[in-house]
Specification:
By secondary structure, the protein is mostly helical. It is built from 18 helices and two strands. Strands 1-2 form a two-stranded antiparallel sheet.
Amino acid sequence: MAVTGSTLVLAAPPAPLPDRTPPRPRGPYRRLFALPGTRGFTAGNLLARLPMGMFGVSAVMMIAGQRGSYALAGAVTATGLAATALVAPWTARLIDRHGQARIAVPATLIAVLGSLSLIACVRTGAPAWTLFASYAATATTPNIGGMSRARWTHLLKGSPDAHHTAMSFEQAADELCYMLGPVLAALLCSLLFPEAGTLTAAALLLTGMLVFTSCRSTQPPVSAAPRHGSPLRVLAPLLPLFLATGVVFGSMEIASIAHLDALGLGAASGPVLALQAAGSCAAGLLYGTLRPRGLRTCLTAMAGAMILPWLAAATGSLLPLACALLLAGMATAPTMVTAMSRVHALIPAGRLNEGMTLTVTAILAGISLGAATAGTLVDHLGPATAYALPATAALLALAIGLRPRSPH
């Protein structure tokens, strides 16, 4: 305010200078989950995915605890895995053809009813065949990981960097759920009652699937284009690679459990295996912030890392083995992310969930084959020698990856 002659002048305060500080760039994961609807379907995805690591352990503990037979428990879960290998691709095809919400919810209800039937049959002392039939019904469980990846692919068309980050997150989520699932199942079955693990897994699966499918805005549209042939033909060159990678996973777990038990450190099996999964989870998240590497580079790194546990086992010490398994776990996540990206590039959007389910089926078959073969090696050649199997399977995966690509 100032006086000029007889005039009173009111002067406004000077306007503040505009803030020219550039906004802080958001990290790739913050940008990813800033997209509308992504947080909702991811929450449902994680809830429904956690039971995938719970059902097998829960069924074994429940059946063995009530019927006193690990042989029966193992046979029932193996039957369920075989049924999943047959049914899951058909469920995925229906999801691609009719939409996620329309198929996934009733398929999940059938699987949950199968779990409840298993509990009832175990509790009432029903004939053994009813356990096989009940657990086989859980094979209709939709591939929630494949459906989630299909949503990211739909949302991130034309954004390869963001898509790479999303696939890395999905791989880390796989590792986290398969790491926490068995631990949670074992705690529930041992601390509460034998059926607690299966009941909790069924409740989480149904709740998560309802949350996931309720997020309609991010659901991939159903393609009206005619569907000719099967993704199996396109994926045929890659499926042996996923099979060999599954052998790595299955054989490494059995070899580690047997080796630690032979050293009198059986109680350390859980934490050591969790360390391997944690390494893979952390590496997956980190890989999502970096430039993606070629599949051959990732396979070479995995093949080199899988030799480390074999060398560490020869020392007879826990610390070198734990460090080697941590490094081995860190090498698997980039390989899986990059291989899954190759699947996305090969499969049409309208068949993506079916294609993803075929790859998961190949991995599960490899896990079963690796576990069975490693168990035979442990019995005949000793647990330390069994570590040669994951190293050999990783080298086989590398050899498959080094083959020239097909023209298509």
